[in-house]
Every structure is written in C-alpha cells, then in structure tokens.
Amino acid sequence: MIIKQLSIFLENRTGRIREIADLLAQADVNIRALTLADSSDFGIMRLIVDKLDTALKCLKDNNISTALTSVVAVEVPDKPGGLAEVMNIISDSGFDIVYMYSLPEKKHNNAIMIMRFNNTEEAAGILNKRGLSILKQEQVLCL
Amino acid sequence: MWNPEKEQMPTSQLRKEQSENLRALIRRVYDRVPFYREKMNLHGITPDDIRSIEDIAKLPFTSKHEMRDVYPYGLLAVDRKEIVEVHTSSGTTGKPVVDAYTRNDIDLWSEVMARTLGMGNVDSSDTVQVAFGYGMFTGGLGAHYGAHRIGATVLPASSGNSKKQLQLMQDFGTTVIACTPSYCLYMAEFAKDQGIDISKLGLKTGFFGAEPWSNKMRLDIQSKLGIKAFDIYGLTEIIGPGVAAECCEADGLHFFEDHFFPEIINSETGETLPDGEKGELVITTLTKEGTPVIRYRTRDITYIMPEKCRCGRTMRRIHRLFGRNDDMMIIRGVNVFPSQIEELLLCIEGIEPHYQIVVDRKAMLDTMEVHVEVNETIFSDEIRKLEHLEKTITTELRNTLGIQALVKLVEPRSIARSEGKAKRVIDNRNLSIEA
Hints:
In chain A, 34% of the residues lie in helices and 38% in strands. By secondary structure, chain A is of the alpha+beta class. Chain B is α/β, with parallel strands linked by helices.
C-alpha cells in the first residue's frame, strides 16, 4: 500500500527543472505526478514515476541528490465534501500530514491525493481499515 | 607624542634595554614555562646563550598551532593569582589562543595604546568612542585602556548598533573614533541615510585596525568623515592592539619595539632577513609577564623600515601589511580559518562535507556565505529539516566565530573542484593596500 516517491534536491536557479525533465525524458521515464516545495534558496521536487530504478540511476549518475520516500495514494470522492470526509478519518485516526498533493487522473471518478504522514507506514494500514481507498503503486501507474 | 622619552630613545640605548629585557625574559620562561624550556632543550639552547638582542635568532619559533595545543594556561609564566584578565582568540572545539594579563601587563597595554592614540595627539580634552567589540575581542578594551591612560573621556560603545553610535557622537561630541575601517565607512553611509552629515559632527581623528584596508579606503574615510585616519596593528597572541601604529606621516607603522621586538624572516627557511627585505613578521614580547611569547610567527607579510622618521620617533616602522602567507581570513575584524568552519560542519553532520566560503564586501561590510553541498546523507525530503540544518549551521558559526554568516544549501558537485580538490574560499574583496 506504500508508494515510493522520488525526492530531488534542487537549487533555485533558472533552467534547473528543465534539466531534470530532460534527463528523465532521455531515460524514457514517465512522470505520473509532480510537486515542488520551495524555500528561499532551494527546493525539493517530488515525483511519482513509472520506472523508479531507471530514474534513480539516471539522476544519481548526474550527481543529483535524491531520496526515496514512502507516501500513500488515497482516493478522494470527486464531489463536494469528498476531501472533508477523507480528512475527518485521517484526523480522527491521529495522523499528521507532512505534505500532500494531487495526482492528475484521466478516466476515474475519484481524485487521487498523494500524502506523506508523520508515520506513513502505519497510516497506510490503519486508514485502509477505516474504509479509505488506498492505491497500490501499480494502480497509480495504470491510471 | 605620549611618551617622548621612550618613543625618541636613542637607538643604542633601545638596543641595550632590549638586550637586558630579552636576557631576563629567557631566564624567566626557562625557569617557569615547561613549554619553552623543553623547546630550548630540544634546540640545545640554555639561557646563557642569550646575551644580547642579536642572539634572539638562536631561539625557536612559536606557532599559533603550538599556542592552541597548550590551551588554556600552558604559556603562563606567573602564578595564577597574578592574572587579572584573560582574552582569547576565536577557536573551535574549545581551543583558542589565550592571552593572560597581569596587572603590569594591563599597565603595559595601556601605555602602548596611549602611545597609539598619541600618534593623533589625543589628549584629556578628547572624547574617544570605542566601537571595537569588547566581548572577548582585544580591540575594545585595548583602545579603552589607552584612552583612560591619557585621561580622555571614553564612550565604550562596542561594535554594532549604528543608530546608537550616531546618537553618542551627536550628544557627547565624540572627537576620536576607534573601530574597524569597514565599520567606519558603514557608519558614514548609515548617517547619510539618516540625513546626518557625519563630517560636521566634530570628529577629527580615527584609529582603524583589526582588518586589512586599502589606501583608497583611507581616502574615503578621511573625506567622508572629515578626519585623519591612522592604521594600527596588533594581535591577541601578542597583547591585542598596540603593537605598532602609524604616526601623522602615514608612512609605515612604528613598532613599539621596547616591548615587542620585530623580526622579518624568510617563511620557508626561517632565516632572519635584514631590515628592508620583505618576509614574515615574527614578534617577541620582551616585557609581558603573564603569557610571554617568544618569536611568534604572525604569518603577516611586511618589511621593516629602518630609516629615521620625520616625526622624530626612533622606533623602527613596518610597512602596512601586504597580506598573509596562510589561509586565514579577516572578516569584520574577526580572524577565521577555513579549517574552523570545516571542523564545525563535521561536528554537525559527522560526515565530510563539501563546502565553500564566499567572502564579499557589500555596502562597506564584509559578508560571509557558507555553501554546503547537500549529499544523500544530509538530504531530507522535508523542507523544514533542511531549513533546520541551515539554521543549526548558522547558529554554530555565530557561536564559534562570532560572525553572522549566510548558510546556503547547494546541489552536490556544484562547488567547483580543481584536480579533485575543492576551492574552499572565494574572496571577492579587494584587500590589496594599493587598491
């Protein structure tokens, strides 16, 4: 139920995201989801990709600081109150969200949110038991 | 002139006095300081070998490194009860250089700083604003003691807080300022921004040191503040400020050589060079009691100017410093070695970090940036952990060096390496005295 996300350290400078995109394109890696977190002089790019090992190798070969991070993909009903419903369950279960972002999906009735918790591994299991739909890595990539 | 009798002493008499003091000093340290005794034994020298000041070249050198190794009281030549004040230079992991003063040493320090201020004819009618730091930095108290000795009014402003500095100048009619040259120019700019013409405030003389400054900076200071600027030289290892100072001729700094004996050596061979030849300055404290220093290698490059000075002083001069022969940087008057920063980063992360120090001078003040490469060991997926790391490094740098640095996390391999070795320091300041 845990999904592996690729995190990349980036300095804030012109053209840096393009360079990463070029590298991944050359390695034939498809990006399923992406978000950028930024501070005043650096940023962290977080990616869900189809070929994790290929992506990791190509980034490391180019001296880019990367880390694999565990995250959870949660299905959120695509209707008013959908997110509130999910958040109530998470909050009642006592988990804190460190960050979250949404995954673009094409032909699905629900929205998908990628979430990192203070205790991601435990959160995945418990939230699933409490009725949230947690997607597996393959499912996310097949969407 | 503060002390014409001493400062205009005939050279023959000066050499005689130096010889006597050196003989007594060597006997004293041989008896009381195991550090010096062992070194002299190792070189096969006894106090009997030192008869006159010319024999000084027989004695072994003392390095900053050795002084750190015997921290804190390894150079003490008197009973601890005799010590009335202690200063230290910045260090890492608790190993700075220590200068411990007896009451006589404070007296001596006051005397040489009174001579320094006397170069600009400071007297009891003057108000001296000391804007050198006072906290574990010899600049503040050194200037303070000198002004006291003269009987001038002291404003112990310490460094920083420019608004307060200006207020003091206006309200108390400061006539003399003592600070780092870059801080002086910063204050001039600050005053201008506040709509105050600092050249109209009654300042007439300034004493500047603790960092390199160019002749252009001198002209800037003199025209912007409407004062005469004097270059002063000193170092914590010896006593603090008051080792040498410029007279009104502004052509070299008179060495107070009745107390601090200067030599110039070839830094590779250690051989003593004749007056007039450029090399590394070596200093011996002839009269200091607490922590005497024998042939200290300053790493400062200059030459001795033996010619008679028009001001009438007989003490030889050294040329304004040309630079250093090691990697020490002077940032806002604080001595910083790249190795201190490296040690500190190692302590924080426990891994060998790739880092680079970028020094610049912006709006008259030195700035220091420390770039640290984020390798996979320290990379975290969470922004706040990385921000916390930046903050920790900043705090540690401030605590250890007393300098506010801007810490920047950068990508791996982004710091240029030449032949596998990273260039640790980029200094964009133009510190040449001719600049």
